[in-house]
Amino acid sequence: MAEPAYTIPEFRQRAAEETEEYQRVSTNVGKGLAVIQEELSRMRITTKARVDSLNIQREVRDMMAKRPEYLDDIPKMPDFLVALRPHTVWEKTPVKLFCTVQGNPRPIVKWYKGGAPVDPLSAPGKYKIENKYGVHSLIISRCAVSDTAEYSAVATNQHGTATSKATVTVKRASGAGESCHLGLVPHLTEIHPSKLEVTLLDRFKVSFGVEGGSISLVCSMVVIPDLPNVPPIAQWYRDDKLLKAGKLAEMSVGGGAARLTLPHLAKDDEGLYTLRIFTKDGTAEHSAYLFVSDAAPSAAGAPGAPMSVKAYDINSDYVLVAWKPPNTVNEAAISGYFVDRCEAGSDTWVQCNDAPVKVCKYPVHGLKVGRSYHFRVRAVNSAGISRPSRKSDKVTALDDAESQRLQGTDEGVPSAPGQVIATRNTKSSVFVQWDAPKSPKNLMGYYIDGRVVGAKEWFPCNHKPFKHTRFVVHGLIPGETYAFRVQAVNVFGLSEESQESSPIAVEPALATPSAPFGITMLSCDGASITLAWKSPKHCGGSKVNAYYVDKRNADSLVWKEVNQSAITERTCTVENLTEGTFYEFKVQAGNMAGVGVPSAPSAPMKCEAWTMDEPGPAYDLSFSEVRGHSLVVLWKAPVYTGASAVTGYFVEMAKKGSSEFVTLNEEAVSHRYLQATGLEEGATYVFKVRAVNASGVGKASQLSEPVCAKALPGTKEILASVDEETGDIFLSLEACEICETSKFVWSKNYKPIGDCPRVSVSTKGRTSRLTFTSPDKDDLGRYSVVVTDTDGVSGSHTLTEDALNTMLELSYAIRHPVVPLKHGLNYEILEKGHVRFWLQAVKLSPSVSYRFIVNDKEVTSGEGHKISHDVATGVIQMTVDHFTRANEGTYTVQIHDGKAKTQSSLVLVGDVFKAALKEAEFQRKEHIRKQGPHFSEYLYFTVTEDCTVMLACKVANVKKETTFHWYKEDDEIVPETPPNVMSGACALPIPLFSRKDHGVYKAVLGDDRGKDTSVFDISGQVFDDIINAIAHIAGASASDLVLQCTPEGIRLQCYMSYYTEEMKTVWKHKESKIASSEKMRIGGTAEMAWMQICDPSDKEKGHYSIEISDGVKTHTRTFDLSGQAYTDAYEEYLRLKAAAFAEKNRGRVVGGLPDVVTIMEQKSLSLTCTVWGEPTPEVTWFKNEQEVASTEHTKVTFDGGKFASLVINQVTPDDSGKYSINVRNKYGGEFVEITVSVYRHGEKIPEPKLGQPKTPAATPAATPAATPVPRSPAPPSKTPTPTPSKSHTPAPSVKSPGSTPASTPVPKSPTPVPKSPTPTPKSPTPTPSRGVKSPTPPRFMKSPTPPRK
């Protein structure tokens, strides 16, 4: 059911002719409203019969007109309190139109010129629209005649629109080009700054700066009229001394603010700053203290900088410099000062005194007449030198009888100040006053120190001597308790400290509370109204414990008390009301200081019974846990529930000043709290709540107070933990601020806990603890705490099952303590085969006790067992000297340390015990082994840079007589260099390592003290590791692939430091792996790896690579066999192939002929040989280079194309000579020479020439058996070419020297062939073996043909 609107009685209505009087009274109603009310009430009582009722009605209407000022929450359409005024101005002068408008929500004002909107962007600098503190203004700069028009301000909100209009007339002076409506130009009165109306708004607060930093003191204000060219006059003072603008103090006034900037803070800048602005009514002032603390010292413990450096007694050759000492609280005492000087305009400082001066004054000598100087001072103590002070003002060294003199002749520091008294001031400051010292001795001021009660360290409250005996200490922690002391200061230093003040808690000074507000109706039954209101914003430093309610009929001025006794709750049911009548209410709050001022009268409320089915409004909206992005809204259930019970609530939110509310919960919540999340930090919000029942959604609650989404400075959250001493599970909160009347109110699911047996609450100082007596699942939930009489200190914590279980386990561990172990019982095998059983505790006390139990029997320290412990490391151990099979079993250690105890066991049986016993026996044997010569490092391998494998070992405890032997498969190896055991290391080189080096190697070391053996098996993985190590070095040394042509094909070669076929090498063609075959042959030597392409074709063109892998890294070398490279290689291959074919098929002597023959005359000589060639060669015999023809004496035969012979019957000395045979076909031939010597019967057989063996005389029928000996002048015997897998790359043939015109070419061989004149027997086989090929002669070489005669 909607509430009927209130109708203003006729006697309160205002006539049109009374508007001017109403405006006059309204301007002063704020100052004299209370006085007027009292006066009117008195007049009505004393002169009721004589005063005309019309005068009373006029006063009542005036009061009713002021009521909207106190009813901001009532929706109102816009209304102009101050309307626009018409203006007539001269051309090129500014004009300002301003008005004041009210309404709820706040109206939006738009400006129009002749009905068209005013757009400041259309003419930049022409128009300026402002809205400051409810005053809307339009400024037109440098008016032109065209600006003459009707201007209007239109105010709009959701409840309606209001318009105020005014005409602006712009006139031009005579003779300016246009006619002027006025014949004369009036004289415009000059506006002086002192005639402006100035109201200070946001004022600078107590500030804190740091030496060397910067700070700005700003005070915003409203200036009427606000003329850009006429700013108000502002003066700044520090400690009542006028400041002047300069480098150290920058001042500005304008833009609605006065600003003082101190860009280079020093302790000289500390003091009480006052802003004084001259106004129409006098002056407007504001003061606040600026504290400047010491900057970080240059050295830890060094004192702060001195201050107030000034020059006195200025003369032509000296100046007396004086200063104020810094405050020393926790630093060492000051031992003296250094004074520095600097000529004006220079940055070079010169120290004036060699030794520190003890007092705060010093005469500086050696100045130059007429020069200007600055001075500065540095303080010294045992820790170091302070930062320099701010430099003094410029001083010129001149005699001046009028210069300022430093007064005072008393020496010594002043006496200590008298009694110090501290009293409450605000929630973060304390007022301190004291008695002056009895012996001031030219007092400079005082330093005030403070400390938290219970703490030992003092902190400075001021950093510059304060001249008065009273001081306000700011920046204290609310609710904390402090004590203060004072020291007096003069040029000789600081006095003794005064006695401490009595401890005082930081609380606001007692005062009556401010007025309650937000009076709202919760229910009405036709005879009574239930009211609710909000707490005073300021409690006055004491708990609000009483409320008093007054009421009156809305048509009356007389208030009547509702309650004689105090109401402690913020709800009240007012009885005995008349149904249908409108009533107004006001509330006063009281505390121990008294009853405060009453609230503003409520809106008229009609006493009419509520009959709607929906519930009434919720009330008492409050906030908890306000953070940067969330807060919790709480409220109370509506008093009027409607036709059915309340089933839930909806919460709506909007930013302050906005009418667009957003519902936070889609479904109604049954509890009376809701957490709002996703807030914008720093933004201000308002909330309202609607209750829901079966009939629908009820009336909205009164709007909440605006709340800023920002956490209080120093806010801490609730801590859930376990007490380390008792094991109690608790929740605790440390308040960031508190006062004497504050209380911690704990709630579960936002319902006050009160006296509950499951929990107990304790408070100590700023911390409150909620302890669970018997925690279990019933204690799960959301816990919150609110600190009363603060600015909203609160917090919450959700206790989950997992967190509770974790804390229960920790609680059990604390209540049933155990000795925590870093390591449980373990064992280790020591030298000599001893076994150590040990464990390590986190911490042990000196009173710890323990015992070892082995197989259920306690073991004590004695023979065979050593038991000990170390408190520092927490180790408890037992050492068993003789570990045998009898020691198998279970080992246990039991520890008692105070209340805590624990035990740890180790089961040492089965395979585990066998392993331990084996290790113990091994260590025992090792100990015995090391008594004689032994290997300190057993055999291991290394690979040198030339790929030689070295088997190395290290030996110890040797002497000169100690022997060392190497063995492979029990066969001793005698190295070239005998091992030197005295060097401590021995090594066996294995060059050209390959699979042949498989085997078991052994090193034996021994002397008269004993023998030790080291075995190294080179097989399996060890062999692979060695090969990989060789491949690592060889792969890194591998050259690029080189191309070499042979008669069989094209060969790619890779040279490296060492190669063996066991290395993991892979040849690839176009990224495809190559397998060794008849087409692609793969092989190598010790110096290189090669791959040969037999009978190459175009298919074999492409990219080739070799990959050498060492198991970790792969070394790759590549060659591109394509293009011109392939063409050149293929042509060379064809050439070599043809030459090899010719060499294979040429005519040659393959065996049978000697080089030298000695025969007796009359014997028959038969020279027979086997020849070969394809086609069958021609055979020609020569004697002394003359062809031999076949005769009876000399018979020449050639049988079967294979056997050629020359038979001389009955030789004579004439047959001696040089015989030769020439065998040739179309591919070439061979020329072989034989020397024949014939001696007579009876003559001595001629000795063979040097290099010739002695040969017996041959019979005519026998073939001389001559030893094959190479010949020097004759063509050398042929050396077969090695097979590709065993030989080096064939090299081109070279010419051999000889007596013949040319000789048959032979290839180079790794082994030189000796030469001899003796004939060399030929091989009986005419065809070379499969694995042997003949060398290919170059193209220009031909078989020699002797000349024919």
UniProtKB/TrEMBL annotation:
Organism from which the protein derives: Sparus aurata (Gilthead sea bream)
The protein's name: Myomesin 2a
Keyword Electron transport: no
Domain Fibronectin type-III: 305-400, 416-509, 512-610, 617-714
InterPro entries the UniProt entry points to: FN3_dom (IPR003961), FN3_sf (IPR036116), Ig-like_dom (IPR007110), Ig-like_dom_sf (IPR036179), Ig-like_fold (IPR013783), Ig_I-set (IPR013098), Ig_sub (IPR003599), Ig_sub2 (IPR003598)
Coiled coil: none
SMART domains reported in the protein's UniProt record: FN3, IG, IGc2
Pfam family of the protein (one): I-set
Top-level taxon: Eukaryota
Any one cellular-component term (Gene Ontology): myosin filament
Region (Disordered): 386-417, 1245-1349
Molecular-function GO term, any one: structural molecule activity
Chief location category: cytoplasm
Record carries keyword Transmembrane: no
Alphabetic keyword roster: Cytoplasm, Immunoglobulin domain, Muscle protein, Repeat, Thick filament
Biological process per Gene Ontology, one example term: sarcomere organization
Location of this chain's protein in the cell: Cytoplasm
Biased composition (Pro residues): 1270-1283, 1307-1327
Ig-like domain: residues covered: 78-169, 193-293, 933-1019, 1154-1237
Low complexity composition-biased segments: 1253-1269, 1284-1306
Gene of this entry: MYOM2
